[in-house]
Design brief:
The chain is of the alpha/beta class and about 325 residues long. The chain folds into 2 domains: about 5-140 and about 155-230, Spore Coat Polysaccharide Biosynthesis Protein SpsA, Chain A; about 240-305, no CATH class. It is built from 11 helices and 12 strands. The protein has helices at about 20-30, 50-55, 70-80, 100-110, 140-145, 150, 185-190, 205-215, 240-255, 260-290, 290-305; strands at about 10-15, 40-45, 60-65, 85-90, 95, 115-125, 130, 135, 170-175, 175, 180-185, 220-230. α5 runs parallel beside α10 (about 260-290), α9 crosses α11 and α10 (about 260-290) runs antiparallel to α11 (about 290-305).
Length: about 325
């Protein structure tokens, strides 16, 4: 292990029943991160898929084994509190490095004179670009996406949640990056209180980035390097878990950041949009039987009937 005083970066990975993916992820990190003094902390949320074999395979990794599934937010917070690096990287277990991405993003953040969160390009299995950064939800861009106004009127930027990547491929400021790859200063993450643990699964990254921005920090997307992100691999065989928690987290963001009239307006528009999507997804699935459409339908139905208790007010 690297001496504590020499550790520049702590790589934090939360795992739940993703042993095979995690093994590949760890191997890729070690292969492509040669010029940084780092530690890896893996937090396992009580996996049942022979996870213990990794403890033997990777003796230089610090493993924290929980006795129950504490959720993504809480598990990350536990690990970051033990981190010894000046910087920490929150990395999903379903990611795979294909070049020295961590080193590149670390060098970029070191050059900044402001507290920052930095993410990089995420690729789908087929190599296509994954949407991994976005604008924070507002009344306008939510209504725009709910009713497809962002596609009908692409020239009205207020209707869109997307931030296009500049043609010069330079790093640029955005509003939030997804939690599959977030690099920041460890002390700053802890000063923010880490992830809000009221978000059990999903939306904790949106909330974290917003609190970071409200504190005066900036969020950057660094497009010069890319990693693979299988996306939802942990919940692929747990469609009901995904549907229920995605539905809860969506409403929770509205509960936390919208108030009075704006909250009512967003909520009404949200439920109307769900009623529009259900017959569309149902018909599409009936004629194609695609798993993706089935999952979309399942999530939409869950969103229609699930309303979590407001933990924020």
């Amino acid at each position: 292990m690297v001496q504590d005083s020499l550790i520049a970066l702590s790589i934090i990975i939360v795992n739940y029943n993703g042993t095979k993916m995690l093994r590949d992820c760890l191997a890729s990190v070690m292969q492509y991160t040669q010029n940084v003094k780092y530690e890896i902390i893996v937090v396992d949320n009580n996996s049942t898929d022979n996870f213990s074999s990794l403890i033997v395979e990777f003796p230089n990794v610090l493993f924290i084994c929980n006795n129950e599934n504490l959720g993504f937010a809480r598990a990350n917070n536990i690990a970051v509190k033990k981190a010894k690096g000046e910087f920490c990287l929150l990395l999903n277990n379903d990611t795979l490095l294909i070049e020295n991405s961590i080193e590149q993003v670390l060098e970029f953040i070191k050059e900044l004179e402001i507290e920052a969160f930095v993410g990089c390009k995420l690729l789908n299995r087929d190599g296509s670009l994954q949407l991994s950064h976005n604008k924070f939800p507002t009344v306008f861009n939510l209504i725009g996406t709910f009713f497809f106004l962002d596609r009908l009127f692409p020239f009205i930027k207020q209707f869109s949640k997307t931030v296009p990547i500049p043609n010069d491929n330079q790093a640029f400021e955005t509003e939030f990056i997804i939690g599959a790859f977030i690099l920041c200063r460890t002390a700053h993450f802890n000063e923010l209180g880490g992830f809000d643990e009221r978000f059990y699964f999903y939306s904790e990254d949106i909330d974290l980035c917003q609190r970071h921005r409200l504190s005066g920090g900036k969020v950057y997307f660094y497009p010069k390097t890319a990693i693979f992100h299988w996306g939802g691999a942990t919940t692929e065989n747990l469609p009901f878990f995904k549907a229920i928690n995605y539905a809860k987290a969506t409403i929770q963001i509205y509960q936390k950041y919208f108030h009075s009239c704006s909250f009512v307006l967003v909520l009404v528009a949200y439920y109307i949009s769900l009623l529009i999507r259900i017959p569309i997804f149902s018909l599409a699935y009936f004629f194609t039987f695609k798993k993706m459409l089935r999952n979309k339908l399942l999530v939409t139905l869950a969103q229609l009937v699930i309303y979590p208790k407001n933990l924020f007010h």
